[in-house]
Write a structure and sequence with these properties.
- The complex is a heterodimer.
- By secondary structure, chain A is mainly α.
- Chain A is built from eight helices and no strands.
- In chain A, helix 3 runs antiparallel to helix 5.
- In chain B, helix 2 packs across helix 10, helix 6 runs antiparallel to helix 8 and helix 12 runs antiparallel to helix 13.
- Chain B is mainly α.
- Chain B is globular and about 65 Å long.
- Chain B has a two-stranded antiparallel sheet with strand order 1-2.
- Classes of the chains: A mainly alpha, B mainly alpha.
- At the A-B interface, helix 1, helix 2, helix 3, helix 4 and helix 5 of A face helix 2, helix 4, helix 6, helix 10 and helix 12 of B.
Chain lengths: ~180, ~400
């Protein structure tokens, strides 16, 4: 009892300090002058268009659940650890068999990919696009201002594309320009 | 040895003669002193960190307020009291105010169990320089670190804003992950000591500078695992994905202002001091050190160790780049936790006899190899599951 009391007291002191600082802030600080922009959630100065998400990737929940397994294991290991010198070999066998059971479950989880995060293998293989990146694969070429075709600017080229889609024959060289090879 | 130790250190001798008025006075004075030490050290550590980071980055750091700028954090703290206390419209009002308190209080409770070293005799009353020494000792630390997860999680949830929510969900997954490694490495120390009392853990390391310290037992591995795990637990760099500025604009405490923000800041740095003290207690012998001029100067050694550890934390912040989230989780789950578990078994085996130690080592090696294979299988499987095309369709 005598060793729990100080813990309780410092807990109370911490609470008092926190509540006291809130009270001090209320007394010392200015009255909040509220306006909608101040009260709204932070979004780098623009009004957010969506609510904060209510759903999260399931992996976060999974981690919490797997953690419980380990936490329980740790809880059971502590009494064994404290009494280990008295238990001796029996304690070791207990610990090892318990660890083995948890290990098997853990290895299963890991082999199922339950603890894999991030994009991993997904990148690049979904759309059939070439995995190796090169300049010609990623940069969409438009003809440069000094190029020989009359409609050289990107905007003109886009207009040309629209015209080409409409069936205008005159725009066909310009519509080919985005796919053109590197000039020079 | 260990049961004798447990008998020797049943608690504070202050209460041995019953509790009269002076015992209560001493207890309250100790309480206030511990609280004040932690508060002042927070002010100090904030400046210490800023100075050290600045010098490591070839800057001067803050040098205007007070001598060499050492009063800057005090000025910042006081300033926050005079700021508008704003509660966002979408916030859950009660939980929003509760969260900083939940984040702050457990840290102070943890500091109560740290033995600073030695005893003090005032007018016939002998007391240890340690506020509380409960029978579950070091479990208080684990308990407090579990509760401080709630502070972060509630803060993010109650803010009613996108970035704090993402930050807090990340934080809770991260803290929960590293707590397992933390618990296992502490269990190794408990196994070596045979007691949960922090005073007994320190006493078991007493005698011989560095020679008996837990850092050398288990080949330094429990120390390494604990240090990494506690860094992640505090969401300190390089594990500070919680407040990754580029992505989350500040993290879980972004919607906080005024004194509520100050409490989060206080909690963060109080946790840094407390956990440095815990590392010193568990692995560096606490107040153990050579006597100076015939006097046992435990608190001096203790402070020195804490300062060195704080420097290492700041150094890590200045040097290491932030991890990616998948790297963070891989480090926690696939390296530290199995490693800590294997280590615990090896240490336990070695406590029985060296033959069992070798057997445990061999068994752990086999298990870790199997786990490596499981990780490989998991990686290959999850790649397919996550929407990658089967390989035969990829090649033309």
């Amino acid at each position: 009892m005598d060793q729990y009391l100080p813990l309780l007291l410092i807990f109370a002191l911490g609470l008092v300090f926190a509540v006291g600082s809130f009270a001090a802030s209320r007394m010392l600080g200015p009255r909040p002058r509220l306006n909608p922009a101040k009260l709204g959630p932070f979004e780098s100065g623009i009004a957010p268009r969506r609510e904060p998400p209510a759903r999260f990737p399931v992996r976060f929940y999974l981690v919490a659940m797997i953690f419980i397994i380990f936490d329980i294991e740790i809880v059971f290991l502590y009494p064994l650890a404290v009494m280990f010198n008295q238990l001796g070999l029996f304690g070791l066998v207990e610990m090892a068999s318990f660890a083995l059971v948890v290990f098997v479950a853990f290895a299963y989880l890991v082999s199922e990919g339950a603890l894999d995060w991030g994009p991993g293998k997904r990148a690049g293989s979904r759309s059939g696009a070439p995995v190796t990146r090169s300049v010609s694969a990623t940069v969409r070429r438009v003809s440069r201002p000094g190029a020989p075709t009359p409609q050289a600017s990107p905007w003109a080229a886009r207009g040309g594309e629209a015209a080409a889609a409409a069936g205008g024959p005159a725009a066909s060289p310009a519509s080919a320009a985005p796919k053109a090879r590197v000039v020079g | 040895m260990t049961s004798a130790l447990a008998a020797l250190y049943p608690g504070d001798p202050l209460f041995a003669k019953g509790a009269d008025l002076w015992v209560w006075v001493i207890l309250l004075v100790k309480l206030v002193v511990v609280f004040a030490i932690l508060m002042v050290s927070v002010l100090f550590v904030i400046m210490y960190e800023r100075k050290v980071v600045a010098r490591l980055g070839n800057r001067w750091g803050p040098n205007r307020a007070g001598p060499n700028g050492w009063l800057q954090s005090l000025a910042d703290g006081l300033k926050l009291f005079f700021k508008e206390a704003l509660v966002p419209a979408q916030a859950d009002k009660v939980v929003y105010r509760l969260a900083p308190v939940v984040a702050m209080v457990p840290v102070f409770v943890t500091f109560a169990i740290v033995p600073v070293g030695g005893t003090l005799t005032i007018g016939g009353y002998t007391t240890r320089l340690q506020l509380a020494d409960p029978p579950w000792g070091i479990l208080v630390m684990l308990m407090a670190s579990s509760i401080s997860v709630y502070g972060v999680l509630l803060a993010g949830w109650a803010s009613g804003s996108k970035y704090p929510l993402i930050g807090s969900v990340r934080a809770s997954a991260q803290m929960v992950s590293y707590e397992a490694a933390l618990g296992l490495s502490v269990a190794t120390v408990v196994l070596l000591t045979g007691s949960l009392h922090t005073s007994a853990i320190v006493a078991a390391q007493h005698g011989g500078f560095l020679y008996h310290w837990n850092i050398l037992r288990g080949f330094g591995a429990p120390f390494a695992i604990f240090s990494i795990a506690i860094t992640a637990e505090m969401t300190r760099p390089p594990f500070d994905l919680v407040e990754a500025e580029e992505e989350l604009a500040g993290g879980f405490n972004m919607e906080y202002s005024s004194v509520a923000f100050a409490l989060f800041y206080l909690a963060e740095y109080a946790a840094l001091v407390t956990n440095s003290a815990i590392i010193a207690t568990l692995f560096l012998g606490g107040p153990d050190g050579p006597r100076i001029a015939g006097h046992s100067v435990g608190p001096v050694w203790f402070t020195l160790k804490v300062l060195i550890l704080l420097y290492v934390f700041v150094w890590a912040r200045a040097t290491l780049p932030r991890l990616r989230y998948d790297q963070l989780m891989d480090l926690g789950w696939k390296r530290l936790i199995p490693g800590a578990l294997a280590l615990l078994l090896v240490v336990a085996g070695a406590r029985v006899s060296w033959r069992y130690g070798l057997a445990a080592l061999a068994g752990s090696m086999i298990a870790l190899l199997l786990l490596a294979r499981a990780i490989e299988v998991g990686r290959a499987g999850s790649g397919k599951e996550q929407g990658g095309m089967p390989s035969e369709l990829e090649s033309p």
